[in-house]
Amino acid sequence: MAADALGAMGTACGGCHTALGAPLQFSGMSPEGKESSVLDRMLRHSWAADRMWEGLIGPSDLAWDAGIAALQEAPLHPDMLADNHSPPQAVVELAAAIHTLGQRGKTTSEPAARARLYGEYLATCAGCHSQLDVSLKPRQ
């Protein structure tokens, strides 16, 4: 799966940075989207994905932990995602899976396991977006 390969690639980047004694430094560890609208929560989850990626390529425990914490702090309620209607069961399961990944990510420290979790995260997001027919637009 492409998402798994991307996670593995990030870990390879981090391995080189570590081997060269040149870990990357990241700033901006305060998450966006602290409000409770769907857009705010989606921005927060996007922010979390960016921090998790930095955690892989840095490698950076600080960035990884910040991304994982954002997943745990911005719960997705399935009815929010379906315009306050009852969503398909698959969406309910995918929303729950995101937070399960956040729980698992808290105790995941080995780079290859983080890469797999990151791949799962991306695939889960894509699955939900597909179920709800949501297209992504580039940020301005």
Kindly describe this structure.
67% of the residues lie in helices and 0% in strands. It has 6 helices and no strands. It is mainly alpha-helical. It has one domain (8-17, 34-131).
**Percent of residues in helical segments?**
55-70%
How would you describe the shape? Answer: elongated
Give the distance, in angstroms, between the N- and C-terminal Cα atoms.
29 Å
The overall average pLDDT, rounded, is 82
Tally of discrete structural domains: 1
Q: What structural class results from the helix and strand content?
A: mainly alpha
Number of helices: 6
Query: What is the beta-strand fraction?
Result: under 5%
Compute the number of strand runs.
0
Question: Can you summarize the main beta sheet?
Answer: none
Instruction: From the alpha carbons, calculate the radius of gyration and give it in angstroms.
Output: 15 Å
Run of helices and strands: HHHHHH
Uncertain runs: none
Put the structure in a nutshell.
The chain is mainly α and 140 residues long.
Q: What tags apply to this protein structure?
A:
mainly alpha, single chain, 140 residues, 0% strand
Map the helices and strands:
Layout: H1 2-19, H2 38-57, H3 61-73, H4 78-81, H5 89-106, H6 111-131
Helix pairs in contact: 1-2, 1-6, 2-3, 2-6, 3-5, 5-6
